[in-house]
Amino acid sequence: MRGSDQQQSHVFSYISPEQRVRKDHPLRPIRTMVDEILKQLSPQFNKMYSKVGRPSIPPEQLLRAQLLQMLYSVRSERLLMEEMDYNILFRWFVGLNLDDPVWDATVFTKNRDRLLEAEVAKEFLARVVGQAREKGWTSDEHFSVDGTLLEAWASVKSFRPKDKKSFPPPDDPGNPTVDFHGEERSNQTHESKTDPDALLARKSKGKEAQWSYSGNLLVENRNGLIVSSLVWEARGTAERDAAMAMLQDVRRTGNRARNRGRRQGFRHCGVCARVPAHVRHASRSTKPGAARRQRH
Length: 296
Prior knowledge:
It is built from ten helices and eight strands. It is an alpha/beta fold. Among the domains are: 17-125, no CATH class; 140-149 and 215-293. Strands 1, 4, 5, 6, 7 and 8 form a six-stranded mixed sheet that branches. The chain has a two-stranded antiparallel ribbon with strand order 2-3. The longest helix has 15 residues, at 120-134.
């Protein structure tokens, strides 16, 4: 018999998000591990918030939502709130019921910045690595180091000479006209007035130079777990310097790196004298992508 296409919504719903998520979903074990760490961070959350006033977004739900944004590559907080509004899986993971309102994107961003300023997110990720180490999900046999350029929030028009203290008033305060023709500029003589720590850098020859930082990751190869991350100045030796700092940090936490994977650019750095390295030689292969498939 043909079913009826009834458009009228039910007044009450007796199904919870817990019942709609299948038992073998990959997010279930992740949610269990996350809740265990958030319970450990609860005393730290109490110190961040006042005991009086209007309740804010629970920090536990903020961190779960941020984790979802990274796992599913949601490119903005506004899209994340839209997904949480109609996605039952997202609501279940964050801890919202089906009839709970979703936060405004601006309110979510402001509360998120409070956690970042208190370095709670960094402590959360450190406890994730510690949890994996306690359960034997990490090894100290082989690590890989890689980095990339992170674009800074600074305009090229903010690039001004370091020794020049005063500048003529702009023709348009919102978008001033700047003429760089005939002027030699470098990181040694110029700096950004809006972000002095950012440096001009380019990914390769022929690419434009942009205000950047160097983002670096240290990955444990056996299980593919990121055990350390570090943002460095975008200099020519940034990846090498960050590798040294991250390896020393891993040693302080109990792991001793036996081997380290890196590219040929590390050949002349001080890391090679301390940690044996497996070098990826892309020039020895004639097939595209063959060097990427080499096993260390």
